Amino acid sequence: MARANNVTELIITGLFQDPNVQKVCFVLFLPVYMATVLGNGLIVAMVSVSKSLHSPMYIFLSSLSLVEIFYSSTVVPKFITDLLAKVKTISLNGCLAQIFFFHFLGVAEIFLLVVMAYDRYVAICKPLHYMNIMSRQVCHTLVAVSWLGGFLHSIIQVLITIQLPFCGPNVIDHYFCDLQPLFKLACTDTFVESVIVMANSGLIALCSFLVLVSSYVIILINLRNHSADGRHKALSTCASHITVVILFFGPAIFLYMRHSSTFTEDKLVAVFYTVITPMLNPIIYTLRNAEVKNAVRKLWGKKNIGIK
Question: What stretches pass through the bilayer (predicted)?
Answer without folding.
Answer: 26-45, 96-118, 138-160, 203-223, 235-256, 268-287
